[in-house]
Amino acid sequence: MPAPLLISNADARRLFLERHALSATASPEFCADRTLALVKHLGFVQLDSINTVERAHHMILFSRAPGYSREHLADLHHERRDLFEHWTHDASLIPMEFYPHWRHRFAAAKARIAENPRWQERIGPEGEKTIRDIRKRIRRDGPAMARDFEDKGKGSWWGWGPSKTALETLWRTGELAIARREGFEKVYDLAERVIPGDVRRERPSLAASTDFLCREALARLGFATPQEISAFWKLVPIEGAKAWAAKALKRGDIVEVSIEDTAGERRKALALAGIEAHIADAPEPPAAMRFLSPFDPAIRDRARALRLFGFDYRIEVFVPEKKRRYGYYVLPLLEGDRFIGRADVKAHRTEGRLEVKGFWREPGVKLTKAREAGIRRALTALARFTGTPEIDADAALRRARAG
Question: Fewest beta carbons within 10 Å, which of 19, 134, 241, 278?
Fold first, then answer.
């Protein structure tokens, strides 16, 4: 058997960033169709409610497309039905054509919920009746939110009462779908009124879905281990990804590669056949700086970000304030194929002010005049997007220069 193809750290970074849509030249012109193409390229876009700077789904798209508008995503989800909302590793908006492969998740959720005593406790002793009543009410009266029910806010699980638990049960098992969000609240409706009929009628086998999900995960990562393939959609268990990889290797659909990290160490991984051509075609990422969301898919796997980029990142939102190393909502800063720093940022919308509470350079990074000008341009773009034109960054950058 031939030795695995060695992919240098520089080539691995370049391919990885291209696969994560961070290599395209920024264009001020953007539209809903291009937003849809971007979501398809990524595979999904994670939803998150934290609005300290900008909600994750909007920030992820803006970081790649400065011309992106929030209305694009709403149009694709609420009106055009080109996206549906469900779970990957977290709540996400996903291309509609992928919906049939989520049927196996629905079935697994049904079994898991039925066996979960905590879930059954929250839905209450009349759980089946509650589910029937909610199903009937939505069919009769149309879309509903949890706040439309009298038992909203009760219960110890994020304030879930029986009705909210029933709504989530029906959504997670595929009977309901999310028609839209109001603010950040889910609006539930019958799946048949949200998901196009031709998509709902598709019934791929588990084997077909496993093949699709593993192949598409690997395509979007560029290279990955079975564990990383499994983690991408969070739909295929690790053993399933390992079995798929073994068969795909025998068929010649994928190949073994060896990825060089920043220390020169090598780690085995898998890639689609023809990886050499993909590496050759991957462009150099633009030199212009951009701030990424803490939930950006490029840094979602912290261990991989450390190996590939030497960037040690942790979200500290859920870390007690006194134990934080940097800050509450810290944005990584990407320059070309290198993370050069991070900034603790807050958008004060009522004041129209974007505050940089702190800025930290990565080891070996000098804050030259040219680089500081690039940081200020990135902050200006972010301020424009968040509607906070006044930028309060001088003190943080002064400390970073001196530090």
Answer: 278
